[in-house]
Amino acid sequence: MTTFRWGDPADAVTLPSAVRDLLTAALGVTGPRPAAEPTLAPPAPLPGFPGLDVSPEARLRHAGGMSTEDLLIGRSGAVPDAPDGVARPTTHDEVLEVLRIAGEHRIAVVPHGGRTSVVGGLRAAREGYAGVVALDLSGLDRLVRLDETSRTATFEAGVPAPRAEELLNAEGFTLGHFPQSFEFATIGGFAATRSSGQASAGFGRFDQMVVGLRAATGAGTLDLGRAPQSAAGPDLRQLLLGSEGAFGVVTEVTVRVRPLRELHYTGWSFPSFEAGMRAVRSLAQDGPLPAVLRLSDEAETMINAATGASDAGGGCLAIVGCFEGTDPSDRLAEYGGEPLGEAPGKAWEAGRFRAPYLRDALLDAGALAETLETATFWDRLPETYAAVRDALVGALGDGGTPPIVMCHISHVYETGASLYYTVVAAQSEDPVAQWRAAKTAAGDAISASGATITHHHGVGRDHRAWYATEIGPVGVSVLHAVKQATDPHHVLNPGILLP
Amino acid sequence: MTTFRWGDPADAVTLPSAVRDLLTAALGVTGPRPAAEPTLAPPAPLPGFPGLDVSPEARLRHAGGMSTEDLLIGRSGAVPDAPDGVARPTTHDEVLEVLRIAGEHRIAVVPHGGRTSVVGGLRAAREGYAGVVALDLSGLDRLVRLDETSRTATFEAGVPAPRAEELLNAEGFTLGHFPQSFEFATIGGFAATRSSGQASAGFGRFDQMVVGLRAATGAGTLDLGRAPQSAAGPDLRQLLLGSEGAFGVVTEVTVRVRPLRELHYTGWSFPSFEAGMRAVRSLAQDGPLPAVLRLSDEAETMINAATGASDAGGGCLAIVGCFEGTDPSDRLAEYGGEPLGEAPGKAWEAGRFRAPYLRDALLDAGALAETLETATFWDRLPETYAAVRDALVGALGDGGTPPIVMCHISHVYETGASLYYTVVAAQSEDPVAQWRAAKTAAGDAISASGATITHHHGVGRDHRAWYATEIGPVGVSVLHAVKQATDPHHVLNPGILLP
Predict the structure, then answer these.
(1) Chosen from B147, B226, B420 to mutate, greatest number of chain A CBs within 10 A
(2) CATH number for A347
(3) pLDDT value at position A312?
(4) A–B CB contacts, 8 A cutoff, strictly below
(5) Per its UniProt record, what PROSITE patterns does this chain match (chains A, B) (predicted)?
(6) Strand A131-136 to strand A107-112: parallel, antiparallel, or no bridges (unpaired)?
């Protein structure tokens, strides 16, 4: 990651002319908004953490994550979330050492994987602490063990996803986990945030792949997972998964792997989002279930066609990715689907990791662009879909040009599915406040409709309030109790996850 | 349940002559051990709990569970685990009221579902409490909602499994959850203990079916589950599942249901347990995966044939239950399997819930009979299998006739499987001490081999020590912290799950 921009500068996107036209004509975007040079506050002095780097470059590189709010703040020149230094341990014991030193000196510790958080997961609270240290896990970078009999692989937490795939592919295996953050995210980050990949229908969510976990906590080491499943009490793996560094630092993850197989993508068109929803629900409940199954609403289908990202005309585009031997064509046709051949699938596959680059270009051009997501049960899905869309349109269109709000179903289950929204609007004078208002409206709509505040982005700082509502006061007190037990000095990612 | 015997007296088993001969000839069983009349201690006085029954009949009916140790103690005439009375609330709010009153008067509360625990899960500690009340959940007996769109059903916790199936079957659905305790166990009990059914390969474990939970805790109500899956923090459903009443009383469970489909059973013979293990692993990892998949070792196959429970000859018998359209024959044959047709499958299906009745007859006859189970990853399975078998043979054969120790793989996963042992020996003078020694040897062997102390029976009182080793000191302190938050008066099932 470069500073306040996604990924590799060499892969930066230039806006297609169709997009530029759309920004001006439809959204009233007025002009470019170049990023200011960032200014770092002087660092607080830090004690001798393993692998400590207090250079301005290291501090900037670890300043905040990749939410639009993070980027807008960074682009304004302010760097409120820069750590005072970066510790880079290379072993589990050194991670324990970081926690020990931090507890002793009351330094807030912010674990960093690929730094792809889009929910403020790297923006820990500074108030009440003598300093903030970023705990960079890139030094824990080994494949510890590949067990071909059990089909499990044990990775250290800092292994980047592409490296993990490369190591597994060499032995004929795959993890099959391809979230949009794939090119930069790490195995430990996937675990800590309950990541979900684009092929989740075929491979499951990351939390469903994890059979073992090792974590460094403020109370010592936690080693979990003696069997695929167990009735030995609550599943404590599931308490660490999604804990976002608030209970401990995941240092090692054992995941189920599968033989490498090719996926074939095709596009399908449905007359309406409702019709498509019935079709994908049917596949999720009665099969045959593709490994990748996505359904765009009318707005997303139209915008993708207008901007050249797909050539699907009207209706709703579905992307269907199948292993050889799985053919859901009959079922899709039965529900009103029209086959569009391989082209839309190939186009989607080619662009599947490109959206965050496009966002940077949109922000440069003076547009506001962000995504958010939720999940709920099938019977509530249409209501939630409309409520969130209406909330976004209402909040962003208030007194200005209406925004573009697009949505797709990105992950399906037998009992429900996720909804993933993309929003583009003209930036106002204060785009941070503008997006916060829209995000609040959307979060309130999600919460009121009974859906979960996040299906795969995590809680971080941005979803805390709704998360507290979602699990209720008893749930919150349980989490506080767990934190007290695992982080007695309260130095682990303060302000993240828990209110 | 009748007192200290399994199930319905009308279904009691008379030992087949082949079994009687085997007991005498092979095990040296010397003669019948009739049960003594139980003697109840006078009850401690209880405050006015909802639906309170302090009759001796009610107290006896709620005295302990169905482990062989529980039964042996009860058959000796001692009833150390009888509650002082039985509260029978009929609503969630009444359960909260039971917990409030219990906290005020320091009464231990033991939640009761179908009372089928085989791990001492109903034998709460009495020391330090003014009394013990059984919390009978049979009054929470409604199907709250069937959502045919999302394919979920919400049951109150006390609904017995057969009633749940009946209600679902009437609408064309099934839960597909058929553990050996099926005829008596309840939905709430399945959740609290992470039950696993005989068709788990097809339908998943119970904990995998649960999408929503409501629990009454000492700190108030916990309502969990807004979506099939979520990235909103740790999955707190998975903290309640397996909590065995120590953190709260599950009062309502929302489960995924599926359309009712027929299963067809066949038998297969493998030349060795090792060959069969490779075959079932292949099906678990590469498919086609049957819904029911079990593999007996040589001893179990031989004993079942000798006692007329199956007519498979030598080798190892596998029972394979498939939905129409799934045919694993080619794969089974590829791994050395010989088809035995439908007869072994039909015999297994007919006897699938009968083993606990047979145990009562064996105990009457002077034999010791019990089961235990574990799970681990495939690469460790052969070593664990042998270590536990050897530990049982060593402990029970020490100074007497060698026991019969049989084993089968009962549940398979991509990354591992469970091992289920059945042990039959001649009762010594002190069969409780005799079994405790064998159980200790087996538990130590399981723990030392790195496997989990229980795949589906739960922790209860009997597995506490190994469980503590399994999750380590940090894990134990996490559980204590959760208990402090949810059970501040420490009245919920004291001595169960947690050391």
Answers:
(1) B226
(2) 3.40.462.40
(3) 64
(4) 279
(5) FAD_PCMH
(6) parallel
Q: Which residues of A touch B241 (CB under 8 A)?
A: 234-235
- The shortest CB-CB distance from B224 to any of A241, A378, A471 is to A471
Nearest CA in chain B to A245: B233
pLDDT, tens only, A145-169? 999 999 999 999 999 999 999 999 9
Residue B476 lies in a domain: no
Q: With respect to residue B52, please indicate whether it lies within any of the assigned structural domains.
A: yes
Has residue B313 got a pLDDT over 90?
A: no
C-alpha–C-alpha distance, residues B426 and B403, integer Å: 7
Mean pLDDT of the B464-486 span: 98
d(C-alpha A445, C-alpha A453), whole Å: 10
Question: Looking at beta carbons, which residues of chain A come within 8 Å of B233?
Answer: 242-244, 459, 467, 471, 479, 497
Interface of A with B in 58-87 (CB under 8 A): none
**Per the CB < 8 Å rule, is B151 touching A258?**
no
Structural domain range at position B281: 263-448
CA–CA dist B220, B488 (Å, integer): 11
Neighbour tally for A402: CB within 10 Å: 14
Report yes or no: A414 at the B interface, CB cutoff 8 Å.
yes
Whether the bond between B288 and the residue before it is cis, its omega within 30 degrees of 0, is yes
CB–CB contact B242 A229 (8 Å): no
Q: Is A196 annotated as a binding residue?
A: yes
Residue-wise pLDDT tens digits, B198-215: 999 999 999 999 999 999
Do B238 and B282 have their domain in common?
no
A-chain CB neighbours of B194 within 8 Å are 229-231, 235
Nearest to A316 by CA among A302, A333, A332, A331: A302
Do the Cβ atoms of A234 and B220 come within 8 Å?
no
Q: Is residue B462 part of a domain?
A: no
* Number of domains comprising chain B: 3
Of B226, B236, B482, the CB nearest to A451: B226
- Does a structural domain hold residue B29? no
Are residue A219 and residue A177 in the same domain, yes or no? yes
C-alpha pair distances (Å), A313 with each of A306, A308, A333, A389, B317? 9, 11, 18, 22, 57
CA–CA min distance B237, chain A (Å): 9
Residues in chain B: 499
Q: Are residues B157 and B188 in the same domain?
A: yes
Please indicate if the annotation marks A126 as binding a ligand. no
Q: Which of B217, B240, B259 represents a domain boundary (last residue)?
A: B259
pLDDT digit string, tens, across residues B159-168:
999 999 999 9
- Asked if A59 contacts A82 with a C-beta cutoff of 8 angstroms, the reply is yes
Residues of A assigned a catalytic role: 420
ipTM: 0.97
Q: Does A210 touch chain B (CB under 8 A)?
A: no
Long-range contacts of B484-488 (CB under 8 A, 24+ apart): B484/A481, B485/A474, B485/A477, B485/A478, B485/A480, B485/A481, B485/B219, B486/A474, B486/A478, B486/B217, B486/B218, B486/B219, B486/B222, B486/B247, B486/B248, B487/B217, B487/B218, B487/B219, B487/B246, B487/B247, B487/B248, B488/B103, B488/B218, B488/B219
Q: Which of B139, B161, B194 is the last residue of a domain?
A: B139
